[in-house]
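Posted in: Structural Biology > Protein-Ligand Complexes

Title: Requesting predicted complex, zinc ion in pocket

I'd be grateful if someone could produce the 3D structure tokens for the following input. Sequence and ligand are given below.
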Amino acid sequence: MTDGYTVGGDVISWCTKCKLELGHTITAIVDNKPKKVKCNTCNGLHNYRSKPPEPGKTTIKRAGRKRKTPEEIYNEHITRLSGGEPAPARKYKTDDSFTVDELIDHPKFGVGVVTAIVKVNKVETLFKDGPRLLIQNQ
Ligand SMILES: [Zn+2]
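-- Reply #1 --
Done. Output follows.
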């Protein structure tokens, strides 16, 4: 026997536990090739792998779940609340009080959607360029 593998012989295999190419002891042979090997380093038994697993093959990509931009979220809110009609936004005044899902017409930032009441006197409002905290009840 000058070539081929023997059970109990050594072979370099990719270790699935050590994540390295290491010396392994062959424990099973199929078609003159190592089938099962035992890692000499961690003693782990696993299938023989001549190469490390290709990156990308084992990871399943999550399809179509990209992050939305503040503007996309903003547009979704506006469409949902106004039903495609021009939004009936209330003029923003610091002494007014606002509720969630209410549209605010801010003199500087434009029309925004109230997304949360942070405090009695603070509302989080989503504008086209992102969320902002606005004062209310003051
Ligand atoms: Zn190992």
